[in-house]
Structures are given as C-alpha cells and as structure tokens.
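Section 5.1 Outputs to date
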Amino acid sequence: MLSRRLLRIKVLKALFAHIKADAGHMAASEKNLIASVDKAYDLYFQLLALPEELVSYAAERQQIAMQKKLPTFEDLHPNTKFIDNRVIRTIANTDAVNDYVAKHKLGWKNYPELIRSIFNQLSESDYYRTYMAREERSFEEDRAMVDYLFTMLADCPALDEVLEEMSIYWIDDLPYILMMIQRTLSNMRISHTALRVADKYKSEEDPAFLTTLFEKALLHFDEYQELLDRFTANWDIERVVFMDNLILGTAVAELVSFPSIPVKVTMDEWIEISKYYSTPGSSTFINGVLDKIVAALTEEGKIQKSGRGLI
C-alpha cells in the first residue's frame, strides 16, 4: 500500500505546482494529484516486472555461451540457480501483475541496455556470487536474493535515468515503492502459488485523506499564512522560504481537519518531509513553529482529537 507519507508528499507537490502556476481551477490540479498517485502505483508493477526480465537476460546469455564453437565446461553446464529462482518465477506467473502490466502498457522491452546494466551490477556483487556458489536452493534464500536486488536498485544510476525518462514522478517515488515491494516480498510464503500484490491504498480512508488535505490546505491557504505570521515574527525573514510556509500551512490543515490523526503523527511526518523538500535548517524551524501553533490552536479549541488521536 502507498504510505501516508508518500500521499502527503504528493499533496505538497500538487499545492506547490498549483500556487506557483497561479492555476485557477482546483479541480484540474486535484485531477493531476490523483494521477500522480496512480503513477506511483504503476511504478510498483513496473518494478515487479523487472526480475523476470533479468532472468530472461541471464538465460539468453547462457544459451549464447552454449553455442560457442569451443564452449567451456561451465558454458555447457551453467549455474541456473538465479534463473530458477522460485520467488521470481512466482512473480512472473502472477496474473495480477501480468494483467496490470499489460493493461497499463508497462514493461522493460524497450530498455535492453538497462536490463544488461542492472544484471551486470547484480552479478558483480559479492551477495550474488555467494548466492550462486551455495548449493542450497531454499525458498527463503531465493526471497532474500530478490530482496537484495530491490535494495540494490535504490542506488542504480542507470535505473534512475530511465525512470526519469518514463515519468516525471517516478524518481521521487522510487524509495517509497521499493519499500512497498519489500513489504510485499516479506509476506510471501512457499505455499503461495501467486504473489499477493498490495492494494493502492492502505485503507478506504486514504483517498479521502489525499483529496481533503489538498482541498483544505488550498482553500484555507491565506488564512493559514496569516496564522503563521503570528508565530514567525521573530524569525529571520530569509529563513522563512515559501516551501517552509507551504509545509506549515499543510500541516495546520491536517491538524485541524483530521480528528483521528494524532498531533504527534502529523508533526513528525511534516518535520521529516521538510528535511528532504526544504532547506537544511527547515526541520528545526518547522518543529519550533508547529509546537507554538499546536499549543495555540488547542487552547482555542480548533484542534480536537478523538479516539487514538487523543493521545
């Protein structure tokens, strides 16, 4: 499932684009927001289709080696452990993956150089060599191999370049989708005949969270900026960059609009997001300002939490 943090980031980017473009129609920006979430889910399936391509490439290389005029013993008796990886085979035989990839026209057929590059990076790793050298062929070992592959993809410049070409959204989405895939892999069992793919949203509440947060933050943008002015008067104005204000305003929208989300969760999430999407000192600034805002709005009765959010 797409994490709430990724949904928050999507909202933040949509707000930034809408306000900076001085867009007139909220509905169009909201449609783009939802499309960006859909693209993140596309990336989940796009990456799930990658191991099968690597296996096909490895098998092709072994076939070519067998057809040499003077093949070696290793050429004629190749190590097929990676090609026979049961986790990869299970993913490849999962209708939910294949149907989604086909329906949304995803896949790697047009990127043979990328497949070659990733396989070379994988096959040259110590982890892969150790995996291939062990005679054991357990399901757990196969799963660990695939998990390693997706960990490796977090630092793969060749993949980054292609993803940027495929979609403007996917580079920023990649770390979150890789974690989503690894959670999916952790749920696999040897008895499973197909991969249990993750749903797009964790709960039925998430689509409403996405659109409501966007709408509330945008409709009350000026109101929240006036509120922020009350608590940033003593700060160096050069430190109060637009992104800081946008993060703070969106955090306020979440604080007052979602009674079931604990205050601490909202604060921690937006402080963490600020570390990646604003200036180096922004997290400290945002933490200090949010503390004051929460205290003031709670006293005014504008932040009211229920259930778990009361903590």
